[in-house]
Amino acid sequence: MKKLGFLFFFITVLSSCEKYATERIQEKSVSPFIFELPAWAPKPVIPEDNPLTFEKVELGKMLFQDKILSKNNDLSCSSCHNKNLAFSQNIALPKGDENAIGFRNSPSLINTVYNKNFFKDGGVKSLELQVLVPLETHFEFNLSVAEAVERLKNNEFYNSAFYEVFGNEPDVFGLTRAIAAYERTLVDFSTKYDKVIFEKTADFTMEELIGFNLFKANCVSCHNGINFTNQQYYNTGFNENISDLGRFRITRDSSDIGKFKTPNLRNVAITFPYMHDGRINTLEEVIEHYSIREEVGSKSELKPMKFNADQKQQLIAFLKTLTSSKYVN
Ligand code: HEC
Ligand code: HEC
Q1: Is 43 exposed, middle or buried (0-12, 13-18, 19+ CB in 10 A)?
Q2: Burial (0-12, 13-18, 19+ Cβ within 10 Å), 177
Q3: Which of 219, 238, 285 to mutate to test the pocket of ligand 2 (most atoms within 8 A of CB)?
Q4: How far apart are CA 129 and CA 124, in angstroms?
Q5: 36-85 per-position pLDDT tens digit
Q6: What's CA 265's distance to the chain center, in Å?
Q7: Torsion-angle region of 66 (φ positive above 0: left; ψ -120 to 50: alpha; else: beta)
Q8: pLDDT tens digits for 127-147?
Q9: What is the CA(257)–ligand 1 centre distance, in A?
């Protein structure tokens, strides 16, 4: 009951904010933000009502790292989305305001600009709307949007920065747009995989190559595309614990109970622990989970796969080629 009330609360907050999107699109900052993308990379779609400007991205970055948005001034977006961990977190479930524990693992935000929707249940449609969720959630920042805006207005630096970027005082419109704009710039295509496949400036080792072939045979039906996700929802055999109903929370379709979005696998070697609730600690255990798919009564949509010890290591060697050069020593 409590959970439903919570969800309803968000739907109300989120839909009441839709109107901000259309009220005004006039902005003051002008220097265009230049994306440094390789020619072969897909062009990110930037919404027309939130053009990327250098000033706005800088403001968004500051807000992302600032504890001013949390009730007790002790958490920022970076607390759970750490740039040294590809903007993820190495604990299973995050701690929010007053150490309240969240119920899902903090995902990486690298290349999140390519997502059609957000969260492991796909419940949020844009990065702008997403910003409101951590703000108001009691186990994250636990601060009302109105209070957050009030704090920014009373802060000399942010007050003038908002005037510089948006031509007016801090408001929800600017707060959500600045952070979303910054998140859209968190793009990376510097992995060994990119060098081998797209730039042809490196070669896989034999182990990585065999792993890649195993991956193509067993995994790409779901982990495909530029970020290794088809952005669809599946039950991958974690149905013994349905405290998190997954995609069902959004669709109310009982066939969606326990389904979660296929995650982006870029940087997966450093974004442990894994799965929606961080229940799996290592890539070895992930492959182990995929190797034993024949239990009776499982609602898993995974086809049975069996990997011997060598094949498990080969798959892991391949997965390690998906790490950004920033995080490879
Ligand atoms: C207490 C930890 C915590 C804090 C603080 C936090 N997040 Fe998150 N974030 C999460 C978790 C957990 C999820 C996954 C939620 C889900 O899937 O339901 C998430 C998901 C996201 C996503 C969706 C990514 C995707 O591709 O689906 C974005 C974007 C995001 N957070 C941005 C932010 C921003 C911006 C802030 C600050 C305003 C923030 N987060 C603060 C834990 C946190
Ligand atoms: C039927 C679709 C499907 C197939 C096939 C599949 N996966 Fe997944 N994979 C998923 C989903 C969905 C999740 C997220 C489950 C969750 O959040 O509980 C996931 C999670 C993962 C994770 C954890 C990532 C993270 O950040 O939590 C890894 C690693 C992974 N898969 C690798 C593989 C490999 C390797 C294969 C092939 C051997 C494979 N997957 C095959 C759908 C699939």
Answers
A1: exposed
A2: buried
A3: 219
A4: 7
A5: 899 999 999 999 999 999 999 999 999 999 999 999 999 999 999 999 99
A6: 11
A7: beta
A8: 999 999 988 888 888 889 999
A9: 22
